[in-house]
Predict the structure.
Amino acid sequence: MRAAKLKIAIQRSGRLSDSSLDLLHKCDVRFDNGLGKLKSVAHNFPLEILFIRDDDIPRYVEDAVADVGIVGENVLAEQASSLTRLEKLGFGRCRLSVAVPNAFEYTNISSLAGKRIATSYPGLLANFLRENSVDAEIHSISGSVEIAPSVGLADAVCDLVSSGNTLFSNGLSEVKVIMESEATLIARSGLNSATQAVLDSLMFRLRAVNAARENKYIMLNAPNAKLPEIQLLLPGLKSPTITPLGKSGWSSVQSVIGRSDVWKVVEKVKKVGAKGVLVVSIDQMIR
Ligand code: PRP
Ligand code: ZN
């Protein structure tokens, strides 16, 4: 009998592609992803990777061509998908916003009344306009929404904004955020138990990688007299590891700290008298 393989759909090329590949690689799943490939089979994990246009990913998963997929919340919301959202992945953060040409005199959302708005998200835009009782014309287009105003196709756009570069280089300003989004792992229901077991094991790795991403490992040397103070600054998972150094009266202290606390903590321990402070990245973390 052939061993069960899990099929995962990821974006072929776009904002989520690199981070999706990176996440799988950090989970130690090895595969070739040559340009233009539609499918790849991992060498060391029972996973088949399908490279697909992001908007099509929910349908592929619903139709059981893939078992799971990595896709933006924005795409799921637009398609009113009923697929299970397994895990937010912490990358691909963006927002769906209304933007107008710099010359457009915008005061509030009622400035959009009677205007033509180009978007690839007609469903979400229609809901937003309805909720705000704004009557505008929606032009549904599938790509290059940002050029619609300059070619006279629309007065405004409703599109994804991440860095804001696309809007900026097209002379558009963001005026209203409709929704926030990030990459999410989705799954269909009714996986057989062997495939589910592969998914569980992928999820275990994925959570360990994501937890690690949020944390750093700090190592430092400190005079024993300062240990109580330093210990207060380094809570760690349980408590810091403290081991005596060769040099008498000194110890080595090691701990896990939140990534966003690193600089604050480093400054404080330094002030208290820590020496030889090292901060390193963690690959995987299992609590
Ligand atoms: C979105 C959007 C813009 C770009 C905005 O496209 O349509 O083109 O990202 O990013 P920026 O603010 O960093 O410039 P997406 O990656 O979703 O590709 P797609 O439209 O082809 O699906
Ligand atoms: Zn898309």
